[in-house]
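[Q] Does anyone have a clean structure-token version of this?
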Amino acid sequence: MRVTSIQMEIKDGSKEENVEAALDLLEQAPPSDLILLPELWPCGFFSFHRYESDSETIHGPTVSALKKKVKAMGIHVLIGSLVLREDNHLFNAAILLGPDGEMMANYRKIHLFGYQSQERKILSAGEAPVVVDLPWGRAGITTCYDLRFPELYRRMVDQGASIFLIASAWPMARLDAWCLFNRARAHENLSFLISCNCAGKSDGKAFAGHSMVVDPGGDVLAEGGEAACFVSAEIDPERIRLVRDEFPALNDRVLF
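[A] Here you go.
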């Protein structure tokens, strides 16, 4: 199967302009079975003043436009995350659409960022991991700061995950940590990891780019640079079984 991350350049344009840009990029992406978009691309992660005004329900215009596009393409797309409004709460929600354009998963970011960030003040946290069946195996969905918490990924492995899909807006200031955690989460869980990070800037703060496809042995199959790009790779889901059979570290865990 071919997977592609759209390392989208975030611009301080209107939500409508950013949606049009994302739709165009989906058209331009290499033919793929699964495509990912990054975190909070409709408004930009650091544009905290826009969270409330740009928020919408699951039936709002952003998700509706992407559903139509994904159905026309007939593939799986993690449409990244947006500020989702439900009742009196706002969530950082990553949404996976199937080839029929319908929603397969809605993951609300569990670990909200508080360091030099207003995300934790404005948004409500999700409460549960999300693992979903795909034709190539079970996939766990996480978002950005979640990468720092290995227990979440191990919980998803216990729920059958062998592929991790990550939408992110990781900043340039912590690029080294980003590269480390991408490889570590894949390698320690003997799983594929496909991450989609932002490029460009939001409210003057630069993103790190370097979206990755990492195999279950921790080897990087594809990696972007700092600029906007497509990060694409062929992966063999059978590789997961082969690696886990050859080096069965997950079976050797001692639970305390």
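[Q] Thanks! Anything notable?
[A] The CA atoms of residues 77 and 215 lie 20 Å apart.
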